[in-house]
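Entry 12.
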Amino acid sequence: MVYLNNGDRVTGEIKSLYRGLLEFKTDHMGTLLIDWEDISEIVSDTGQSVELTNGQRFYGPLEKSENSDTVAIKTEQGIALSTNYITNMYPVEAGFWQQLDLSFQLGFNWDKSSEVILGGTPRIPLDREDPRASETLQSKPSSCWSQSRINLALCG
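Predicted 3D structure (tokens):
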């Protein structure tokens, strides 16, 4: 929840704080950009990463602050940070698995021919690169074959 200097309060989700603008997503008004100077208080149950001008980062949910010039981060000791020194803020997940972002890519590159089909019955026309080989080799997926002129061997 964001409390504004004019007394209004807005309920929603913090998306980010960057260059003095808080990106705040609400259910009914969409995404708002609120000037950081117009905010008197900010509270969030979601863990936040708060970065200061000196590069320090603090992590935790935001709780009600005693002073309108500070942001309180809920930790074991409780941390109050001056709003003048906060440069960036964005939500983070608390658990290891929620923070982990993995991707896996598998690629296949073939330099001799552009007509390689994987899966099913492999077919490779050999007459493109070597005019002496004018046949097409075929194989069942479970067998192996080779062509000695170009040192080609594939197993299905």
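Annotation: The mean pLDDT is 76. The radius of gyration is 30 Å.
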